[in-house]
Amino acid sequence: MMEQRRNVMIIRRLYKKDRSFYGKVFTLAIPIALQSLLTIGVNMLDTIMVGSLGETALSAVSLANSFISIYQIFCMGLGMGASVLVSRYWGMKLSETSKSAAETALKQTVCLMLRLTLFLASLFAAAMLIIPGTLMRMYTDDPGIIRAGITYFDYSVATCFFLGLSLTTTIALRSVGQVRLPLFVSFGAFFVNLFSNYVLIFGKLGLPRMGVAGAALGTLFARIFETLLILGYLFLRDERICFRPADLLIKTGSLLREYIRISIPVLISDGILALGNNSVAMVIGHLGAVFVAANAITSVTQQLSTVVIQGVSQAGAIVTGQTLGTGKREAAMDQGWLFLGLGLALGTLSAVFITLISGPMVGAYLNVSADTRKTAIELMEAISIIIVFQATNSIMTKGVLRGGGDTRMLMLADNVFLWVLSLPLGLLAGFVLHLSAFWIYIFLKSDQIVKTVWCVWRLQSGKWIKRISTGNNS
Q1: Cα distances (angstroms) measured from residue 380 to each of 26, 231, 276, 361
Q2: In this structure, are residues 304 and 437 in contact, taking their beta carbons and an 8 Å threshold?
Q3: Mean pLDDT across the chain, nearest whole number?
Q4: Looking at residue 95, what DSSP letter applies?
Q5: In terms of pLDDT, which residue wins out, 127 or 102?
Q6: Model-level pTM?
Q7: Where are the domains of the chain?
Q8: Are 473 and 332 in contact (CB under 8 A)?
Q9: Model pLDDT for residues 379-406, shown as the tens digit of each residue
Q10: Sequential DSSP letters for 380-441
Q11: How far apart are CA 308 and CA 33, in angstroms?
């Protein structure tokens, strides 16, 4: 009887009726999810169109994008780190508490974020320009794939700057509730990429057939389109952050210590995590072309199944930050449990979704071998299990706990579980035990299971709620 009562109490805490809370979360999450869906649509177009050129081109673009994804995750880290501060300061501004200091801190945060983005873009662009062959050899020994990957890098150097600026600025705008504009911009970028890919990859409208290079240029044109519109809005129209071009020269010394304390651990955490995930890609790359191509096919499905989860994760960070910014600690605790319940529910729905579409998705790739299709199906089965845990801990770590300012502990936990647990187990499964694709994937993603248990413990402790100041302005 006591056990039954406790279970009922847990369920009520996870799934309490709160229309205001769910309305606010999904008002933020749905546009974010739709924007992610459009981004995935761009990636899917690249994969399908390049896939029609054969497995070598498909593998090359997939592996080259594995390196570019390191940069993208670093940018996400920069943006989400700044988002922790922006959402908290926006909450302070709305509550009229230290309003003037909060307004200044908002601008300083965005300025620091943009400066770091440009610095980071310069580093990755230089690597792609100077040592593209070395980068490709980290993932594969196949000469044909390496050559095609180098071509893709050559045409993607400038993409780093536009991708970084549009991505980080979008996250900052979302943190103050501006979620519709980025969605509309991404919608336009989708069609820019679709048209550019069609014309450049296959050589239409009198242009030469560029293949892999055309896919890279199509992505570049889409990123330029995004950046011009997003930065144009921030500099000329936005009335929430009120950041103008002259603010790029603003003095940021008073906020620097707080920015480093809260935001930089997110960058480090996501950066090291990106390297770890890239190490997973390297493991996959050395398991053979069949495994690489199969993973490229399933990656699109993984992304499709997590768009709502990513939206709720980012909404979790924003809602938690704004709630704490208005001084409502107990409300933030209650919301944390509701977000945990959302994670479990959305993870389960995603698992069902993957199970239903795995067959049609794999069958859409007509120019791959039977072994590749068989391996892709095995990976889909493993993904449908891992997604439940991934959804739950993603909403907690990238959302609630991060929004509470618990960034240093998250930096430690994220990377310990990846580097100490899942990578060694994945290497053991793939290169020592020679297990099936299903078990290799399960072992490579075992950190998702352990991290979920840790998130529940951390949430219950309440230690994830940290005080954040406006620097010397407070």
Answers
A1: 28, 38, 21, 10
A2: no
A3: 84
A4: T
A5: 127
A6: 0.78
A7: 17-464
A8: no
A9: 888 888 999 999 999 999 988 998 888 8
A10: HHHHHHHHHHHHHHHHIIIIIIHHTT-HHHHHHHHHHIIIIIIHHHHHIIIIIS---HHHHH
A11: 5
